[in-house]
Specification:
Elements (H helix, E strand, L loop, with lengths): L11 E5 L3 H13 L4 E5 L2 H10 L4 E5 L7 H10 L10 E5 L4 H10 L3 E4 L4 H13 L4 E4 L2 E4 L11 H7 L4 H9 L1
Parallel strand pairs: 1-2, 1-3, 3-4, 4-5
Antiparallel strand pairs: 6-7
């Protein structure tokens, strides 16, 4: 059975990168995907202002930018009281793909990590996942962003598993109330 076509026609994307060439490259790819509206910003301050003043559905943000890094920008979008959309899908674009960097992005609250060099397929896949297949959004004292778990453990059977391991109902009630 063929997959249903993805329609980005109503989607507004903001590309945030200090490098004009990268903004143009990503913009050309987004136009090829028929993205409805494409905004550009060359720094985090301008990007935050655009989020506040325009309808933006997704952000594509470069990691390394002068002034405020992409990670700092992600944290501001996710946690600032002035942020109009802390739950906006956010794709972090980076050439640094070591595990520590990817985990830092994940822990800052990014929806997806897009690695350089970019390909149209990788950008399409990340955009589709961030917009049309979002993970549940989590707000806790120590984290705001998409659920960091990529997939559920199909063998996990929740609280029932704990009951079978000998926990008393009081223990389970205590776990559920905390």
């Amino acid at each position: 059975m063929p997959e249903e076509a993805v329609d980005f026609g109503e989607v507004a994307v903001l590309v945030v990168d200090d490098d004009q060439y990268m903004r143009q490259l990503i913009g050309h790819m987004l136009r090829a995907f028929d993205v409805g509206t494409i905004f550009h910003a060359n720094n985090a301050k301008d990007a935050f202002q655009k989020i506040r003043l325009s309808r933006v559905d997704c952000l594509i943000v470069d990691w390394l930018m002068p002034g405020m890094s992409g990670i700092e920008f992600v944290l501001m979008v996710r946690t600032s009281p002035q942020s109009p959309k802390p739950d906006i899908p956010l794709i972090l674009c980076t050439g640094h793909t070591d595990r520590d960097r990817v985990e830092e992005g994940r822990d800052a609250g990014v929806s997806e990590v897009l690695t350089k060099p970019l390909s149209p397929k990788s950008l399409f896949d990340k955009l589709e996942a961030a917009i049309f297949k979002p993970r549940p959004f989590i707000i806790t004292p120590g984290y705001t962003g998409p659920c960091r778990r990529r997939r559920g453990n199909v063998k996990y059977d929740g609280i029932e598993r704990r009951m079978n391991k000998g926990l008393r109902q009081n223990d389970i009630d205590s776990l559920l109330s905390s």
